[in-house]
Amino acid sequence: MTRTLLVGVAAAALLLPGGAPALGQERGVTADMDGDGRPDPVSLQQVSDSSMLLRVGLPGEFVDAKVPGNAGGRQPVPVDVNGDGFDEVLVPEAVGANTVTYVVWAYSAEAGLFGVPLRDGAPWRIFEGGGATAVSTYGCGPGRPGRVLDSVNAYLADDGGYRGERVTYQFAYGVAGEVYRMPISGVGRDDPALQADPATCAPLDGR
């Protein structure tokens, strides 16, 4: 992670209302990464076939991180996966024919900009898509406290039912911990176990 301090005109530009991109900031999305109640510009730039630059504009500075992967021109998705008012972003790591693989990134004053790990140290990946014979989606619901995130991944088996799992995660103290894992077997596409709405993970201010 790198930081670029801004002064004078550049610092003022970073604080333009409405999440306008600052001087030198590529247009992307906005997310309140530092929890100060103001939208921060967030962008993702492909710098090679397998490497990207994630940039967040905070008051007085840019915070950059090198991210592996190829987003296929997509920008990050703002979310608040635990409902604490500090937004995260889903960074597209790979774009397949039917499924997008995201990695969850967050910011804290202590750690800076970081990819959220699971308890075993692996990156926290979220999948969306699936096509005609699979389901990959995610959604958020009430937790204790805040929100939890449900990740659903299943495929259409030879018996005509879907098989896979639904995993519930809680993001706290910089780590995503598994709360519950529910096997899915022999259910139809409309079964509640396969349902999740990504819009339920949107930032609390509705962005």
UniProtKB/TrEMBL annotation:
Keywords: Signal
Sections of the chain in a coiled coil: none
One Pfam family of this chain: FG-GAP_3
Signal peptide (UniProt feature, chain positions): 1-22
InterPro entries given in the database record: FG-GAP (IPR013517), Integrin_alpha_N (IPR028994)
Keyword Signal among UniProt keywords: yes
Keyword Transcription regulation: no
SUPFAM superfamilies: Integrin alpha N-terminal domain (SSF69318)
Protein name: VCBS repeat-containing protein
